[in-house]
Amino acid sequence: MLISILACDKKVELGKFNTQVWQLDFNGCDGNRETQLYYLDSIKKNMYGISETQLYKILGRPNKQELGERNRKSYHYYAAPGKQCFMLKSATKTPTLIVDMDALNRVQLMRFSLE
User: Fold this and answer.
1) Which residues contact 20 (CB under 8 A, 6 or more apart)?
2) Contacts of 12 (CB under 8 A, 6+ apart)
3) Long-range contacts of 17-22 (CB under 8 A, 24+ apart)
4) Residue 87 C-alpha from the chain's centroid
5) Most CB within 10 Å of its CB: which of 27, 85, 99, 104?
6) Beta strand 64-67 with 107-114: parallel, antiparallel or unpaired?
7) Cα 13 to Cα 11: distance, rounded to the nearest angstrom
8) Could you give all domains of the chain from N- to C-terminal order, each with its CATH number?
9) pTM for the complete prediction?
10) Chain segment 52-107, per-residue pLDDT in tens
């Protein structure tokens, strides 16, 4: 007997959030990610429970990753120019979007922080 499991991705309504603008400003150094923060904040609860693959389609690859206990991960996306930018090495704090993933690689929490 053959059993197959189909994984259905959750449909995420992105509103006015522009994935291309976000992804093309990889380190946030161009300042284009800042223009998307309002829209991202308004849809972040819609993104809870989406898969890692869906997250990558929406936000692209993270700028930094952290591995936590029990296979939990945190992905960090720089949201504005800061110390990660060549010309701003003296900056003290960088606005960052942190996406916490659960052990099943689903978005558990999205929060903003200064790093």
Assistant:
1) none
2) 43, 46, 47, 50, 54, 58
3) 17/42, 17/43, 17/58, 19/57, 19/58, 19/59, 19/60, 22/59, 22/60
4) 24
5) 99
6) unpaired
7) 7
8) 19-114 (3.30.1450)
9) 0.86
10) 999 999 999 999 999 988 888 999 999 998 888 877 666 678 899 999 999 999 99
Kindly give the pairing relationship between strand 107-114 and strand 95-101: antiparallel
The pair of structure tokens assigned to 65 is 């990753």
* Residue with more model confidence, 5 or 58: 58
For residue 99 the two structure tokens come to 């996406």
Q: Reduced to 3 states, what is the DSSP secondary structure of residue 78?
A: strand
Which tokens hold the place of 98? 């942190």
Token duo for residue 8: 């259905």
CA–CA dist 30, 22 (Å, integer): 10
